Amino acid sequence: MRKYIILTFLLFPLTIFCQTFQLDKRRWHDFEGKLGENDIQLSIYLLDSGQLNGNYCYKKNENKIKFLGQITDNKIELSESLNERTKGYFKGKILTDSLDWFEGTWWDSAGKRKLHFKLRLSSICSGLPDNRYSDLYGTDEDVERFMKRIKASVLNNDKEWLANHINYPINTTIYRGKKITIKNKKQLIDNFEQIFHREFKSKIKSSCVCNMFNNYLGVMFDKGLLWINNKPNSTKDKFGYNITVINN
Question: Taking a C-beta distance cutoff of 8 angstroms, is the pair 180, 190 a contact?
Answer without folding.
Answer: no
